[in-house]
Amino acid sequence: MDFSLRYLVRKTVRPRNNLRTNTAMWLCVLAAFSTTLPTVSGEIFTLSAPDEHISVRLRGTAFIPCWLTPSMDAEGLEVRWYRPKTFDNPVLLYRDKQIQKASQLAQYMGRTSLGLREAKSEGLKGGDVTLKLVNVTLTDEGEYVCCVGRDQGYEIAVVFLKVTVLGSPPLMSAVRTEDGSVNVSCVSQGWKPRPALLWSNGSQTLQPGGQLYSSDAHGLVSVQSWILSSSSSAPWVSCFLGLPEGDEREGRVDLHNLPALPDNQIINYSDPLQAAVIILALLLLIAASIIGVLLYRRRGSGKKSNYLPEEGMNNEEAHPLLSTDMVDIETMRQDGVDVTLDTNAAPPYLKVTPNGKAVRDNIDPCPPEEHLYILGTCGFTSGCRAYWEVKLCNNNYEDNNALEVKESWWVGVARSSVKRRGPATPSTGFWFLSSEKEKVLRLNTSPNILLPAIPRPQTLGVYLDYDKGELSFINVDDKKYIVTMATVFTGEVFPLFNPGRGDTGPMRILNIPKTDAVNVPVAKPEAYKSITETPLEQSEMETLLPDNNHSNVKT
Fold it and tell me: Strand, helix or coil at 133?
């Protein structure tokens, strides 16, 4: 139900122009003592606004509704939107049939206009005086006063704007205990308001062992939760967080192949108090260590934080774990490198084009105990920032039936000393994002972190900042971050590619256009080409065509 405030202050003498602002203010303030309604061309109107608050995502666009009832032309009226106690410095002032900017609050300059409360609205002509506010910040939350009329009478309505923030993707970790149970923790930061949290193993909802909430100085909420689960009951556990408005995050952790706790860290669950204390300490330790080693977040070089710094805040306080989803691809391409596969070191289980730009699985099967991968020729060390792109679908080829869209792959970096057998984790010199036939993206952390709700990219961008210890993965087609791994690199690392066992679709390295980048990697490319794909040579097509008897089973 809408509410209306009906006010009027009669004036027998029209005020001078230099007193107009103060007069309008007092007309709005004194309106509460009136019972007569203002008019437009002799027609009586009231001012209406929603009962409920208006909710908008941080950095989004808000439409704060306000309209005349009955509908009538408001082009000749004064429309003033202001925050409490800021009447003289409005958010927006429409007077004399134009927007007046002289007295506008500085923080709203360039961000406000008159909008439409619905698609079929006629705007001012139909009495719609809705405020449009773009690039919403945390400080924009609160009351907004809509004041409409003329010198003979004004009406006001108050609307509350609520700003919500989608927190960081859940940071998941799991440790096996002595009795075979698994202690799974979930950490997420930067929510507003406090999110609901739900644990699940796919078949049933799980009861958490504990849950902690905390708020920072800006009102952003962090949540930490943990459970004890049986690894035999389900292959994975998920942590789901959501806001009342429908925004949500989900993280999963694979419960297979988890390391057991050392003897001196075995938890005695027979003592509830000891268990609670140790679990809490373990959770905080895990969260602190993983956040230091792997910041599971959507961030990368050159992008902006999801909220504007408040006055008096330093730069560090202005960059929490949440950030904009959009990517400035062109800025990243300034650090573009010409990546070529090391054909001389290619294993017999791979087919590589002569120019070293494309690779796929060969008919010769790779032993199941060995990793199927090939490195690039250019290495990166301290002082390097590098960006490259990999095509993971065949929509640029003439015969779309000749090559399959890729389902299985690894893309990332690795040290030249990595082994083809044994664990492929950061501790052994591997850092990569992988895709599986189950349409799940996975980081090769220990334990693995699954990204089940993120769509498989057709073109994957990789951005390496060696000194920051960050490796970012980007969906180039959507211009959005997938995830960033934060670690400490040691020694020289090289681009890593694994086309997937039995996956006949190729991986193709795209060429990045040459730029005058300030931070040129150590392995500066000799030549750059257009970012657009060029057709494969006939010999390259023949190299990558699937074999009739090629197995299509992926491992």
Answer: strand
